Amino acid sequence: MNPLLLIKTAAKATARAASKIAARIATRVTAKAATLTIMKSAIHPAAKVVTSRGTQVIPIGNFELLLALLFMLVTVSIVLWLGLGLAKKLTIATLRCYGQLLLLGFVLAFVFTHDSPWLTIGALLIMIGFGVQNIISLLKNSPYRLFWPVLGAMTVTGIPITFAVTMLVVGVSPWYRAQYVIPLAGMVFGNSMAGIALAAERVFADLEGRRNEVRLLITLGATAWEASLPSIRAAVKAGLVPTINRTATVGVVAIPGMMTGQILAGANPLEAARYQIVVMLMLAAASSLGAISVALWSYKKAFDQSGAFR
To answer: Is the distance from CB of 288 to CB of 246 less than 8 angstroms?
Structure first.
């Protein structure tokens, strides 16, 4: 027999045999992988990968929510070991975190589904109300009634900035689209609260520290505004310092929450960065406007109708 023909025949037979073996191995591997996937999905629901709009999102199941408690258990154990007396507060705060955020998820799902202007406005009013109540509770030691200055600062800060971003920058249509308005408003209100609380506390603390100086200026003919201006500047500065620090270190020290959430949800990192830039500038404007507003509207509480320092 021709040696060349013999070699070709042997090569073809070897190739056919190898192909059959590879097909059998691939079939077995596929079957085992499918079996493991089914078992893993039954035991570990969060391992399922859900495809949404071309992106892959790994959902967090009930088991993972309970597993996250380990972080707080470690914290509580350290607190108990050090005898700080904060274990009960940490436990209550953790339970409230679970309850409030899950409830928020259900409420937002309802609001997003119906997408009504009245629901959106109602949600904004509720957010303002709770924000004002929280700030007032932080300032409970203040001898002055600050409800109206705080309410005015929250409203002037939150509403215009939120709708300026949603309508002019993002281009949301219709204007009341809850999917955009409510999350952005929540970030605005949440960050402005810190600036408002800091400025409101600092303006009166600084005026009290300058009591003799303020009374002397009033005696010499200065107006309440002129005597309070250094304290107003100190209060606004105190309200702006956290915002300046956060804005200066963003993207270097830490990835902000909104950008992290979008990336985990499968968004393009560059697109997530663009949204985060808008959010950071929005929050900086909210903190500064809130601090300035509450300082300007509250300093007069330290003076009586005749302009004398209380």
So the answer is: no
